[in-house]
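User: Quick sanity check before I run a bigger batch. Here is a single chain. Can you write out its predicted 3D structure?
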Amino acid sequence: MDLTIVLTAFQEVLHPTMLLYIMIGVFFGIVAGAIPGFTFTMALILAFPFTFSMEPIQGLALMIGIYIGGLSGGLISSILLGIPGTPSSVVTTFDGYPMTKNGEAPRALGIGILSSVIGTFIGAIILFLLGPVIAKGSLLFGPWEIFSLVVFALTLIAGLSGKSMTKGLIAGCLGLLIGTIGISPSGTLRFDFGIPELSSGFSALPVLIGLFAVSQLLTNVEELKQKLSVQESSALKQKVRIPYRRVFKDLYADKWNALRSSLIGCFIGCLPAAGAESANFISYDQAKKFSKHKSQFGKGHPGGIIASETSNNAVAGGAFIPTITLGIPGDVAQAIMIGALILHGINPGPALFTQQPLLVNSIYVVIIFSGIAVFFIQTLLLPLFTRITLIPKSLLVPSILLLSSVGAFALNNQLFDVWIVLLFGLLGFFFQKIDIPLSPIILGLILGPTLEKEMTRAFQMDSSFLPFFTRPISLLFLILAGISIIFTLIQMKKQDNHGEKYERLEEQDEKNKVI
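Assistant: Done. Predicted structure follows.
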Protein backbone atom coordinates (compact mmCIF):
# COMPACT_ATOMS: atom_id res chain seq x y z
CA MET A 1 0.00 0.00 0.00
CA ASP A 2 1.46 3.34 -1.09
CA LEU A 3 1.44 5.63 1.96
CA THR A 4 1.58 8.72 -0.26
CA ILE A 5 -1.70 7.79 -1.96
CA VAL A 6 -3.33 7.12 1.41
CA LEU A 7 -2.27 10.55 2.70
CA THR A 8 -3.47 12.18 -0.53
CA ALA A 9 -6.83 10.44 -0.08
CA PHE A 10 -7.11 11.85 3.45
CA GLN A 11 -6.22 15.29 2.13
CA GLU A 12 -8.88 15.08 -0.58
CA VAL A 13 -11.61 13.82 1.75
CA LEU A 14 -10.78 16.49 4.34
CA HIS A 15 -11.67 19.20 1.80
CA PRO A 16 -14.69 21.17 3.14
CA THR A 17 -16.81 20.29 0.09
CA MET A 18 -16.19 16.56 0.56
CA LEU A 19 -16.94 16.73 4.28
CA LEU A 20 -20.16 18.60 3.49
CA TYR A 21 -21.26 15.85 1.07
CA ILE A 22 -20.49 13.22 3.71
CA MET A 23 -22.44 15.10 6.40
CA ILE A 24 -25.42 15.65 4.08
CA GLY A 25 -25.40 11.99 3.07
CA VAL A 26 -25.18 10.74 6.66
CA PHE A 27 -27.96 13.10 7.77
CA PHE A 28 -30.41 11.97 5.09
CA GLY A 29 -29.33 8.35 5.56
CA ILE A 30 -30.21 8.53 9.26
CA VAL A 31 -33.53 10.20 8.43
CA ALA A 32 -34.33 7.50 5.86
CA GLY A 33 -33.35 4.74 8.28
CA ALA A 34 -35.32 6.25 11.17
CA ILE A 35 -38.61 6.42 9.25
CA PRO A 36 -40.31 3.00 9.23
CA GLY A 37 -41.08 2.00 5.66
CA PHE A 38 -38.63 4.44 4.06
CA THR A 39 -35.34 2.53 3.77
CA PHE A 40 -31.91 3.98 3.02
CA THR A 41 -32.01 2.00 -0.25
CA MET A 42 -34.80 4.34 -1.36
CA ALA A 43 -32.70 7.31 -0.25
CA LEU A 44 -29.76 6.02 -2.33
CA ILE A 45 -31.99 5.63 -5.37
CA LEU A 46 -33.39 9.14 -4.94
CA ALA A 47 -29.89 10.60 -4.47
CA PHE A 48 -28.46 8.79 -7.50
CA PRO A 49 -29.57 11.37 -10.13
CA PHE A 50 -27.97 14.18 -8.10
CA THR A 51 -24.55 12.56 -8.55
CA PHE A 52 -24.66 12.94 -12.35
CA SER A 53 -23.01 16.36 -12.29
CA MET A 54 -20.56 15.58 -9.46
CA GLU A 55 -17.01 14.30 -9.55
CA PRO A 56 -16.91 10.48 -9.02
CA ILE A 57 -15.53 10.65 -5.47
CA GLN A 58 -17.98 13.42 -4.54
CA GLY A 59 -20.92 11.36 -5.73
CA LEU A 60 -19.60 8.32 -3.87
CA ALA A 61 -19.05 10.38 -0.71
CA LEU A 62 -22.71 11.42 -0.76
CA MET A 63 -23.94 7.88 -1.37
CA ILE A 64 -21.57 6.22 1.12
CA GLY A 65 -22.74 8.75 3.71
CA ILE A 66 -26.38 7.78 3.03
CA TYR A 67 -25.43 4.09 3.18
CA ILE A 68 -23.58 4.29 6.52
CA GLY A 69 -26.12 6.70 8.02
CA GLY A 70 -29.02 4.53 6.89
CA LEU A 71 -27.53 1.37 8.38
CA SER A 72 -27.33 3.15 11.74
CA GLY A 73 -30.52 5.23 11.54
CA GLY A 74 -32.81 2.22 11.73
CA LEU A 75 -31.93 1.77 15.40
CA ILE A 76 -33.92 4.89 16.40
CA SER A 77 -37.40 3.59 15.59
CA SER A 78 -36.37 0.03 16.47
CA ILE A 79 -35.45 1.06 20.02
CA LEU A 80 -38.10 3.73 20.63
CA LEU A 81 -41.08 2.19 18.82
CA GLY A 82 -40.23 -1.47 18.42
CA ILE A 83 -40.70 -0.92 14.67
CA PRO A 84 -37.60 -1.65 12.55
CA GLY A 85 -36.64 1.46 10.59
CA THR A 86 -34.87 -0.77 8.06
CA PRO A 87 -34.88 -4.55 7.47
CA SER A 88 -31.31 -4.63 8.80
CA SER A 89 -32.41 -3.29 12.20
CA VAL A 90 -35.00 -5.97 12.96
CA VAL A 91 -32.76 -7.69 15.52
CA THR A 92 -32.16 -4.39 17.35
CA THR A 93 -35.82 -4.43 18.41
CA PHE A 94 -35.32 -7.71 20.32
CA ASP A 95 -33.53 -5.99 23.21
CA GLY A 96 -33.71 -2.29 22.30
CA TYR A 97 -37.48 -1.94 22.66
CA PRO A 98 -37.64 -3.89 25.95
CA MET A 99 -35.00 -1.48 27.32
CA THR A 100 -37.26 1.43 26.29
CA LYS A 101 -40.21 -0.15 28.07
CA ASN A 102 -37.96 -0.57 31.13
CA GLY A 103 -37.22 3.17 31.08
CA GLU A 104 -33.71 2.80 29.59
CA ALA A 105 -34.27 4.31 26.14
CA PRO A 106 -31.33 6.79 26.36
CA ARG A 107 -28.93 4.01 27.39
CA ALA A 108 -30.18 1.75 24.59
CA LEU A 109 -29.81 4.54 22.00
CA GLY A 110 -26.27 5.30 23.21
CA ILE A 111 -25.27 1.63 22.95
CA GLY A 112 -26.75 1.44 19.46
CA ILE A 113 -25.02 4.59 18.19
CA LEU A 114 -21.56 3.69 19.52
CA SER A 115 -21.93 0.09 18.33
CA SER A 116 -22.72 1.39 14.83
CA VAL A 117 -19.56 3.52 14.86
CA ILE A 118 -17.39 0.62 16.08
CA GLY A 119 -18.80 -1.68 13.38
CA THR A 120 -18.17 0.95 10.69
CA PHE A 121 -14.54 1.44 11.76
CA ILE A 122 -13.76 -2.30 11.90
CA GLY A 123 -15.42 -2.82 8.52
CA ALA A 124 -13.32 -0.01 6.97
CA ILE A 125 -10.09 -1.44 8.44
CA ILE A 126 -10.80 -4.91 7.06
CA LEU A 127 -11.68 -3.42 3.66
CA PHE A 128 -8.40 -1.47 3.73
CA LEU A 129 -6.36 -4.60 4.60
CA LEU A 130 -8.08 -7.24 2.49
CA GLY A 131 -9.31 -5.24 -0.51
CA PRO A 132 -5.91 -4.91 -2.25
CA VAL A 133 -5.06 -8.57 -1.51
CA ILE A 134 -8.29 -9.79 -3.09
CA ALA A 135 -7.79 -7.40 -6.01
CA LYS A 136 -4.32 -8.81 -6.75
CA GLY A 137 -5.65 -12.35 -6.60
CA SER A 138 -8.57 -11.51 -8.84
CA LEU A 139 -6.19 -10.37 -11.60
CA LEU A 140 -5.74 -14.09 -12.22
CA PHE A 141 -9.42 -14.35 -13.11
CA GLY A 142 -10.35 -15.17 -16.68
CA PRO A 143 -13.90 -15.56 -18.06
CA TRP A 144 -14.09 -19.11 -16.63
CA GLU A 145 -13.34 -17.95 -13.08
CA ILE A 146 -15.73 -14.98 -13.26
CA PHE A 147 -18.48 -17.22 -14.66
CA SER A 148 -18.04 -19.71 -11.80
CA LEU A 149 -17.94 -16.90 -9.25
CA VAL A 150 -21.24 -15.52 -10.56
CA VAL A 151 -22.73 -19.04 -10.45
CA PHE A 152 -21.70 -19.23 -6.80
CA ALA A 153 -23.23 -15.79 -6.15
CA LEU A 154 -26.48 -16.88 -7.80
CA THR A 155 -26.74 -19.89 -5.47
CA LEU A 156 -27.28 -17.34 -2.70
CA ILE A 157 -30.75 -16.79 -4.21
CA ALA A 158 -31.75 -19.78 -2.10
CA GLY A 159 -30.68 -17.92 1.02
CA LEU A 160 -32.81 -14.93 0.00
CA SER A 161 -35.87 -17.04 -0.71
CA GLY A 162 -37.43 -16.80 2.73
CA LYS A 163 -39.88 -19.56 3.56
CA SER A 164 -40.19 -20.93 0.03
CA MET A 165 -37.19 -21.80 -2.12
CA THR A 166 -39.53 -22.35 -5.07
CA LYS A 167 -40.75 -18.74 -4.93
CA GLY A 168 -37.18 -17.49 -4.53
CA LEU A 169 -36.04 -19.44 -7.58
CA ILE A 170 -38.99 -18.10 -9.59
CA ALA A 171 -37.97 -14.56 -8.61
CA GLY A 172 -34.30 -15.22 -9.45
CA CYS A 173 -35.19 -16.70 -12.84
CA LEU A 174 -37.43 -13.71 -13.55
CA GLY A 175 -34.47 -11.42 -12.83
CA LEU A 176 -32.26 -13.45 -15.18
CA LEU A 177 -34.96 -13.28 -17.86
CA ILE A 178 -35.30 -9.50 -17.51
CA GLY A 179 -31.52 -9.24 -17.91
CA THR A 180 -31.69 -10.94 -21.33
CA ILE A 181 -33.84 -8.17 -22.85
CA GLY A 182 -31.94 -6.04 -25.35
CA ILE A 183 -28.74 -6.80 -27.27
CA SER A 184 -27.01 -10.10 -26.46
CA PRO A 185 -23.20 -10.40 -26.05
CA SER A 186 -23.08 -11.73 -29.61
CA GLY A 187 -24.80 -8.57 -30.92
CA THR A 188 -28.29 -9.99 -31.53
CA LEU A 189 -31.38 -7.96 -30.61
CA ARG A 190 -33.86 -10.04 -28.63
CA PHE A 191 -37.09 -9.79 -26.60
CA ASP A 192 -37.64 -6.11 -27.50
CA PHE A 193 -41.25 -6.80 -28.65
CA GLY A 194 -40.90 -4.07 -31.25
CA ILE A 195 -40.46 -1.38 -28.57
CA PRO A 196 -37.47 0.83 -29.49
CA GLU A 197 -36.79 1.76 -25.84
CA LEU A 198 -36.19 -1.91 -24.98
CA SER A 199 -33.41 -2.32 -27.53
CA SER A 200 -30.85 -1.41 -24.86
CA GLY A 201 -32.58 -3.46 -22.17
CA PHE A 202 -33.91 -2.32 -18.81
CA SER A 203 -31.87 0.22 -16.88
CA ALA A 204 -31.25 -1.07 -13.36
CA LEU A 205 -32.29 2.21 -11.68
CA PRO A 206 -35.99 2.30 -12.76
CA VAL A 207 -36.33 -1.40 -11.87
CA LEU A 208 -34.76 -0.79 -8.45
CA ILE A 209 -37.02 2.21 -7.80
CA GLY A 210 -40.10 0.27 -8.81
CA LEU A 211 -39.41 -2.95 -6.95
CA PHE A 212 -38.05 -1.53 -3.71
CA ALA A 213 -39.39 2.02 -3.40
CA VAL A 214 -42.77 2.15 -5.12
CA SER A 215 -43.88 -1.33 -4.02
CA GLN A 216 -43.09 -0.42 -0.40
CA LEU A 217 -44.95 2.88 -0.78
CA LEU A 218 -48.01 1.04 -2.09
CA THR A 219 -47.79 -1.21 0.96
CA ASN A 220 -47.57 1.87 3.19
CA VAL A 221 -50.77 3.27 1.66
CA GLU A 222 -52.60 0.37 3.29
CA GLU A 223 -51.22 1.41 6.67
CA LEU A 224 -52.06 5.14 6.53
CA LYS A 225 -54.56 4.82 9.39
CA GLN A 226 -52.09 3.06 11.66
CA LYS A 227 -51.54 5.01 14.89
CA LEU A 228 -48.92 4.81 17.60
CA SER A 229 -49.95 3.56 21.01
CA VAL A 230 -49.98 6.00 23.94
CA GLN A 231 -46.94 4.27 25.42
CA GLU A 232 -44.91 4.62 22.23
CA SER A 233 -45.86 8.31 21.82
CA SER A 234 -44.80 9.10 25.36
CA ALA A 235 -41.44 7.37 24.77
CA LEU A 236 -40.84 9.70 21.83
CA LYS A 237 -41.69 12.81 23.84
CA GLN A 238 -39.15 12.06 26.57
CA LYS A 239 -36.05 14.26 26.64
CA VAL A 240 -33.22 12.05 25.43
CA ARG A 241 -29.86 12.42 27.14
CA ILE A 242 -27.47 9.57 26.48
CA PRO A 243 -25.51 8.42 29.57
CA TYR A 244 -22.23 7.85 27.70
CA ARG A 245 -20.25 6.89 30.83
CA ARG A 246 -22.64 3.99 31.40
CA VAL A 247 -22.69 3.17 27.69
CA PHE A 248 -18.87 2.96 27.49
CA LYS A 249 -18.90 0.57 30.44
CA ASP A 250 -21.48 -1.60 28.67
CA LEU A 251 -19.39 -1.72 25.51
CA TYR A 252 -16.17 -2.46 27.38
CA ALA A 253 -17.84 -5.30 29.27
CA ASP A 254 -19.05 -6.76 25.96
CA LYS A 255 -15.97 -5.90 23.85
CA TRP A 256 -15.48 -9.44 22.52
CA ASN A 257 -19.10 -9.54 21.44
CA ALA A 258 -18.55 -6.26 19.53
CA LEU A 259 -15.40 -7.59 17.83
CA ARG A 260 -16.92 -10.98 16.98
CA SER A 261 -20.11 -9.42 15.63
CA SER A 262 -18.14 -6.92 13.52
CA LEU A 263 -16.09 -9.72 11.97
CA ILE A 264 -19.25 -11.70 11.26
CA GLY A 265 -20.76 -8.61 9.64
CA CYS A 266 -17.69 -8.12 7.43
CA PHE A 267 -17.69 -11.75 6.35
CA ILE A 268 -21.42 -11.79 5.57
CA GLY A 269 -21.02 -8.48 3.72
CA CYS A 270 -18.41 -10.07 1.44
CA LEU A 271 -20.97 -12.61 0.24
CA PRO A 272 -22.95 -11.16 -2.68
CA ALA A 273 -26.57 -10.45 -1.70
CA ALA A 274 -26.26 -12.07 1.75
CA GLY A 275 -27.22 -8.74 3.34
CA ALA A 276 -27.07 -7.08 6.73
CA GLU A 277 -30.19 -8.96 7.84
CA SER A 278 -28.33 -12.29 7.77
CA ALA A 279 -25.39 -10.77 9.65
CA ASN A 280 -27.74 -9.45 12.36
CA PHE A 281 -29.37 -12.78 13.07
CA ILE A 282 -26.12 -14.75 12.99
CA SER A 283 -24.33 -12.25 15.27
CA TYR A 284 -27.23 -12.17 17.71
CA ASP A 285 -27.32 -15.96 17.82
CA GLN A 286 -23.57 -16.15 18.49
CA ALA A 287 -23.74 -13.39 21.13
CA LYS A 288 -26.45 -15.29 22.96
CA LYS A 289 -24.52 -18.59 22.79
CA PHE A 290 -21.32 -17.03 24.18
CA SER A 291 -23.07 -14.93 26.85
CA LYS A 292 -23.20 -15.89 30.53
CA HIS A 293 -26.68 -14.36 30.70
CA LYS A 294 -28.50 -16.16 27.89
CA SER A 295 -31.88 -15.91 29.61
CA GLN A 296 -31.72 -12.08 29.58
CA PHE A 297 -31.53 -11.82 25.79
CA GLY A 298 -34.82 -10.61 24.39
CA LYS A 299 -35.69 -8.91 27.69
CA GLY A 300 -33.45 -5.86 27.38
CA HIS A 301 -29.84 -7.09 27.34
CA PRO A 302 -27.24 -4.57 26.00
CA GLY A 303 -25.35 -7.40 24.29
CA GLY A 304 -28.25 -7.91 21.89
CA ILE A 305 -28.05 -4.31 20.65
CA ILE A 306 -24.24 -4.46 20.45
CA ALA A 307 -24.35 -7.65 18.36
CA SER A 308 -26.99 -6.28 16.00
CA GLU A 309 -25.59 -2.80 15.42
CA THR A 310 -21.88 -3.65 15.16
CA SER A 311 -22.56 -6.41 12.62
CA ASN A 312 -25.09 -4.19 10.86
CA ASN A 313 -22.59 -1.41 10.08
CA ALA A 314 -19.57 -3.70 9.61
CA VAL A 315 -21.45 -5.15 6.63
CA ALA A 316 -20.69 -1.92 4.75
CA GLY A 317 -16.92 -2.52 4.74
CA GLY A 318 -17.35 -6.16 3.78
CA ALA A 319 -19.88 -5.39 1.05
CA PHE A 320 -17.45 -3.01 -0.66
CA ILE A 321 -14.86 -5.80 -1.05
CA PRO A 322 -16.63 -7.72 -3.88
CA THR A 323 -17.98 -4.44 -5.28
CA ILE A 324 -14.65 -2.72 -5.96
CA THR A 325 -12.46 -5.82 -6.37
CA LEU A 326 -14.72 -8.01 -8.52
CA GLY A 327 -17.49 -5.70 -9.71
CA ILE A 328 -20.10 -7.90 -8.00
CA PRO A 329 -22.51 -6.05 -5.66
CA GLY A 330 -22.58 -7.22 -2.05
CA ASP A 331 -26.17 -5.95 -1.72
CA VAL A 332 -28.74 -3.75 -3.45
CA ALA A 333 -27.05 -0.60 -2.11
CA GLN A 334 -23.76 -1.72 -3.64
CA ALA A 335 -25.52 -2.30 -6.95
CA ILE A 336 -26.48 1.38 -6.92
CA MET A 337 -22.84 2.28 -6.08
CA ILE A 338 -21.67 0.29 -9.10
CA GLY A 339 -24.21 2.16 -11.21
CA ALA A 340 -22.77 5.47 -9.98
CA LEU A 341 -19.22 4.38 -10.88
CA ILE A 342 -20.20 3.12 -14.32
CA LEU A 343 -22.11 6.35 -14.97
CA HIS A 344 -18.82 8.22 -14.49
CA GLY A 345 -16.96 5.86 -16.83
CA ILE A 346 -15.30 3.83 -14.03
CA ASN A 347 -15.60 0.05 -14.20
CA PRO A 348 -15.25 -1.71 -10.82
CA GLY A 349 -12.89 -4.68 -10.78
CA PRO A 350 -9.25 -5.64 -10.15
CA ALA A 351 -7.94 -2.99 -12.57
CA LEU A 352 -9.55 -0.26 -10.46
CA PHE A 353 -6.74 -0.57 -7.89
CA THR A 354 -4.07 0.22 -10.49
CA GLN A 355 -6.05 2.66 -12.65
CA GLN A 356 -7.78 4.63 -9.85
CA PRO A 357 -5.77 4.03 -6.63
CA LEU A 358 -6.72 7.45 -5.24
CA LEU A 359 -10.42 6.75 -5.73
CA VAL A 360 -10.15 3.36 -3.98
CA ASN A 361 -8.28 4.81 -1.00
CA SER A 362 -10.71 7.69 -0.81
CA ILE A 363 -13.54 5.16 -0.39
CA TYR A 364 -11.79 3.77 2.71
CA VAL A 365 -11.39 7.25 4.16
CA VAL A 366 -14.97 8.28 3.37
CA ILE A 367 -16.30 5.24 5.24
CA ILE A 368 -14.25 6.18 8.32
CA PHE A 369 -15.41 9.80 8.27
CA SER A 370 -18.99 8.65 7.70
CA GLY A 371 -18.71 6.65 10.92
CA ILE A 372 -17.49 9.76 12.77
CA ALA A 373 -20.35 11.78 11.25
CA VAL A 374 -22.86 9.16 12.42
CA PHE A 375 -21.71 9.66 16.01
CA PHE A 376 -21.83 13.45 16.04
CA ILE A 377 -25.01 13.90 13.97
CA GLN A 378 -27.02 11.33 15.91
CA THR A 379 -25.79 12.62 19.26
CA LEU A 380 -26.51 16.28 18.48
CA LEU A 381 -29.75 15.84 16.54
CA LEU A 382 -31.24 12.81 18.28
CA PRO A 383 -34.32 14.76 19.55
CA LEU A 384 -35.05 15.78 15.94
CA PHE A 385 -34.68 12.23 14.63
CA THR A 386 -37.06 10.90 17.27
CA ARG A 387 -39.71 13.32 15.95
CA ILE A 388 -39.05 12.38 12.31
CA THR A 389 -40.36 8.89 13.00
CA LEU A 390 -43.80 10.48 13.50
CA ILE A 391 -44.11 12.00 9.99
CA PRO A 392 -47.57 10.98 8.68
CA LYS A 393 -47.39 8.50 5.83
CA SER A 394 -50.13 10.48 4.09
CA LEU A 395 -47.48 13.18 3.48
CA LEU A 396 -44.49 10.89 3.06
CA VAL A 397 -45.86 8.50 0.43
CA PRO A 398 -46.81 10.99 -2.34
CA SER A 399 -43.63 13.02 -1.80
CA ILE A 400 -41.36 9.99 -2.23
CA LEU A 401 -43.39 8.74 -5.21
CA LEU A 402 -42.91 12.09 -6.97
CA LEU A 403 -39.16 12.14 -6.26
CA SER A 404 -38.84 8.53 -7.44
CA SER A 405 -40.45 9.36 -10.78
CA VAL A 406 -38.25 12.44 -11.25
CA GLY A 407 -35.14 10.38 -10.45
CA ALA A 408 -36.06 7.72 -13.01
CA PHE A 409 -36.83 10.31 -15.69
CA ALA A 410 -33.51 12.09 -15.09
CA LEU A 411 -31.54 8.92 -15.92
CA ASN A 412 -32.22 8.93 -19.67
CA ASN A 413 -34.62 11.89 -20.01
CA GLN A 414 -37.39 9.63 -21.28
CA LEU A 415 -40.92 9.08 -19.95
CA PHE A 416 -40.60 5.35 -20.69
CA ASP A 417 -38.46 4.91 -17.57
CA VAL A 418 -41.23 6.39 -15.41
CA TRP A 419 -43.66 3.80 -16.79
CA ILE A 420 -41.08 1.12 -16.00
CA VAL A 421 -40.98 2.37 -12.40
CA LEU A 422 -44.76 2.10 -12.10
CA LEU A 423 -44.85 -1.30 -13.81
CA PHE A 424 -42.23 -2.83 -11.51
CA GLY A 425 -43.78 -1.06 -8.53
CA LEU A 426 -47.08 -2.84 -9.17
CA LEU A 427 -45.23 -6.09 -9.86
CA GLY A 428 -43.26 -5.77 -6.60
CA PHE A 429 -46.44 -4.96 -4.65
CA PHE A 430 -48.15 -8.04 -6.10
CA PHE A 431 -45.12 -10.22 -5.32
CA GLN A 432 -45.07 -9.03 -1.72
CA LYS A 433 -48.72 -10.02 -1.39
CA ILE A 434 -47.96 -13.59 -2.48
CA ASP A 435 -44.68 -13.75 -0.50
CA ILE A 436 -42.31 -13.81 -3.48
CA PRO A 437 -39.03 -12.16 -2.38
CA LEU A 438 -37.79 -9.18 -4.40
CA SER A 439 -34.03 -9.42 -3.71
CA PRO A 440 -33.50 -12.48 -5.99
CA ILE A 441 -34.99 -10.50 -8.90
CA ILE A 442 -32.37 -7.79 -8.49
CA LEU A 443 -29.62 -10.37 -8.00
CA GLY A 444 -30.62 -12.09 -11.24
CA LEU A 445 -30.98 -8.82 -13.14
CA ILE A 446 -27.55 -7.54 -12.10
CA LEU A 447 -25.55 -10.76 -12.33
CA GLY A 448 -27.37 -12.36 -15.28
CA PRO A 449 -25.78 -10.21 -18.02
CA THR A 450 -22.32 -10.73 -16.44
CA LEU A 451 -22.88 -14.49 -16.38
CA GLU A 452 -23.91 -14.55 -20.04
CA LYS A 453 -21.11 -12.22 -21.16
CA GLU A 454 -18.37 -14.25 -19.44
CA MET A 455 -19.79 -17.55 -20.69
CA THR A 456 -19.77 -16.18 -24.25
CA ARG A 457 -16.17 -14.97 -23.84
CA ALA A 458 -15.11 -18.34 -22.43
CA PHE A 459 -16.54 -20.29 -25.37
CA GLN A 460 -15.07 -17.82 -27.85
CA MET A 461 -11.64 -18.56 -26.38
CA ASP A 462 -12.19 -22.30 -25.96
CA SER A 463 -15.27 -24.20 -27.12
CA SER A 464 -14.72 -26.95 -24.51
CA PHE A 465 -16.42 -27.17 -21.09
CA LEU A 466 -13.26 -28.59 -19.51
CA PRO A 467 -11.57 -25.27 -18.52
CA PHE A 468 -14.44 -24.59 -16.12
CA PHE A 469 -13.37 -27.70 -14.17
CA THR A 470 -9.64 -27.89 -14.86
CA ARG A 471 -8.78 -24.31 -13.83
CA PRO A 472 -8.33 -24.41 -10.01
CA ILE A 473 -10.06 -21.12 -9.10
CA SER A 474 -13.01 -21.85 -11.35
CA LEU A 475 -13.35 -25.34 -9.88
CA LEU A 476 -13.17 -23.91 -6.34
CA PHE A 477 -16.11 -21.57 -6.96
CA LEU A 478 -18.15 -24.36 -8.54
CA ILE A 479 -17.45 -26.55 -5.49
CA LEU A 480 -18.49 -23.69 -3.21
CA ALA A 481 -21.67 -23.30 -5.26
CA GLY A 482 -22.42 -27.00 -4.76
CA ILE A 483 -21.74 -26.72 -1.01
CA SER A 484 -23.98 -23.67 -0.82
CA ILE A 485 -26.87 -25.53 -2.46
CA ILE A 486 -26.41 -28.62 -0.27
CA PHE A 487 -26.18 -26.53 2.91
CA THR A 488 -29.36 -24.63 2.00
CA LEU A 489 -31.24 -27.87 1.30
CA ILE A 490 -30.14 -29.28 4.69
CA GLN A 491 -31.24 -26.10 6.46
CA MET A 492 -34.61 -26.20 4.71
CA LYS A 493 -35.04 -29.84 5.70
CA LYS A 494 -34.35 -28.93 9.33
CA GLN A 495 -36.87 -26.08 9.17
CA ASP A 496 -39.50 -28.41 7.70
CA ASN A 497 -38.86 -30.92 10.49
CA HIS A 498 -39.12 -28.20 13.13
CA GLY A 499 -42.34 -26.97 11.52
CA GLU A 500 -43.87 -30.46 11.53
CA LYS A 501 -42.84 -30.96 15.17
CA TYR A 502 -44.40 -27.61 16.11
CA GLU A 503 -47.64 -28.50 14.32
CA ARG A 504 -47.79 -31.85 16.17
CA LEU A 505 -47.31 -30.07 19.51
CA GLU A 506 -50.12 -27.63 18.64
CA GLU A 507 -52.42 -30.51 17.73
CA GLN A 508 -51.59 -32.23 21.03
CA ASP A 509 -52.34 -29.02 22.94
CA GLU A 510 -55.71 -28.72 21.22
CA LYS A 511 -56.55 -32.33 22.13
CA ASN A 512 -55.57 -31.71 25.75
CA LYS A 513 -57.82 -28.62 25.86
CA VAL A 514 -60.75 -30.67 24.53
CA ILE A 515 -60.13 -33.39 27.13
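The first helix runs from residue 3 to 13.

User: Great, the batch can go ahead then.
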